[in-house]
Amino acid sequence: MIKYSLMWKIPAAAILLCFLWPLAVYAGEEKGIIRLATEPGGAEIYVDGNRRMTTPSDPGDTTTLRLDPGKYRIEAKLAQEKGPDGRAFYGRRDMEVKEGSEIKFTLVLRSLAEPVRTYEDNNGFAVSAAFGPEGRYALSGACERRIERIRGGSIKLIHLETGKTVRTFGDDKECALCMAFDPEGKLALSGSPEGTVTMWNIESGGSVLTLNGHQGDVRSVAFSPDGRLGLSGSDDKTVRLWDLEKGEEIRTFAGHEDRVRSVAFSPDGKKVLSASWDSTVRLWDLETGEEIRTFTDHKFQVHSAAFSPDGQKAVSGSSDKTVKVWDVETGKTLQTFSGHDDWVRAVAFGPDGECVLSGSDDKTARLWDLRTGELIRNYTDHDGWVLSADISPDGRRAITGSRDKTFKLWFLKMP
């Protein structure tokens, strides 16, 4: 009797509220519906990085996601054979889900062997491309010459996510054979067919200074790790060291017997690497200007060379169609990568030092695994010689420039 009497003393309004409260909560938090398919089908779906489901193998069929109202990143990954054909597929879409809404779409997945974006530059051959230190922007240098006459050129700052040109440096005939960012991403160097090196302000797009001294095309430029010094290599067979604060030449590294096509500072800033058409790569002492070592295993012209992130190795690309990895301390060849069908024009180390990217006149760029000695992936979308190649600071993307007047952005790894 006591239990019943207590129950009947509860107000009727309170009882009614108990019944209606779950309905009110549900009505205020109604989920949105996403009906999703992928092409190809059978992909794993991630929502804000959390795996949720696998799509049907038939691309015509959809799978359903029920999500609370809000903004989400929907990702689809289909990892098949991860060989040189790059058969690892990925797609992404950022979207907002509204209460009670229904969205239906298909994500077309892209192979890692296909470019993420293509940037066209009709002002000339895409001879130089370089990532900024944060990886969000890239510098592109274009140049076209006919019988020693400049027909066109450009230097541009590109926002990689949107593909838009943020800034243009100089006029429409600013022919840039090579480009480099400073470590802070505030300045840039470019080399010209007139033998000059120009430093640019990234923010304003204006020229800061022009360095004169070379008697031939300037084919490669680099900033020192602290950004105070500049390095340039030229068809006049010399490498020159510059004080960028004073705008003066410090010294000339002489010894190559043919055109110098590539230069680089060691990560500690104490050594210089140069590659030449005399078929050699040479190591120099920055302080004294003396040659330390000559790497002589290539059979023909060497077009590009770079240090590994730890400075213990170097990589080079040559007209003998090979990519070679060297021991900097001993000068011995550690690895030789064969597979290109024509001259290798460009090489770059990944930031972890475990992979190398190469660009060739066979119209391909290739990614090599230094741990296994195998080809990871072959990038084949260019219609002309691949003249430049660079890897982003996070190691996930690459940019290449080609004689087909395009720059292409690639994924090296799943985003």
Task: Describe, in plain words, how this protein is organized in 3D.
This protein has helices at about 1-10, 10-30, and strands spanning about 30-40, 45, 50-55, 65, 70-80, 90-95, 100-110, 110, 115-120, 125-130, 135-145, 150-160, 165-170, 180, 185-190, 195-200, 205-210, 220-225, 230-235, 240-245, 250-255, 260-265, 270-275, 280-285, 290-295, 300-305, 315-320, 320-325, 335-340, 345-350, 355-360, 365-370, 375-380, 385-390, 395-400, 405-410. The protein is mainly beta. It has two domains: about 30-110, Carboxypeptidase-like, regulatory domain (Immunoglobulin-like), CATH 2.60.40.1120; about 115-410, Methylamine Dehydrogenase, Chain H, CATH 2.130.10.10. A hairpin with a 2-residue loop joins strand 2 and strand 3. Mean pLDDT is about 90; it is low at about 1-10 and about 10-30.
Rounded mean pLDDT is 89
Strand content: over 45%
Portion of residues in helices? Answer: under 10%
Count of the domains? 2
CATH superfamily (homologous) name of the largest domain: YVTN repeat-like/Quinoprotein amine dehydrogenase
CATH class term of the largest domain: Mainly Beta
- Integer-rounded radius of gyration: 28 Å
- Poorly predicted regions: 1-10, 12-28
Reported CATH architecture of the largest domain: 7 Propeller
Main sheet summary = 5 strands, antiparallel
N-end to C-end Cα span: 68 Å
Summarize the structure.
The protein is mostly beta strands. It is 6% helix and 53% strand.
List the helices and strands and how they pair.
Elements: H1 2-8, H2 12-28, E1 32-39, E2 44-47, E3 50-54, E4 63-67, E5 70-79, E6 88-97, E7 102-108, E8 110-111, E9 117-120, E10 125-131, E11 137-146, E12 149-159, E13 165-169, E14 178-181, E15 187-191, E16 197-201, E17 207-211, E18 218-223, E19 229-234, E20 238-243, E21 248-254, E22 260-265, E23 271-276, E24 281-285, E25 291-295, E26 302-307, E27 313-318, E28 322-327, E29 333-338, E30 344-349, E31 355-360, E32 365-369, E33 375-379, E34 386-391, E35 397-402, E36 406-411
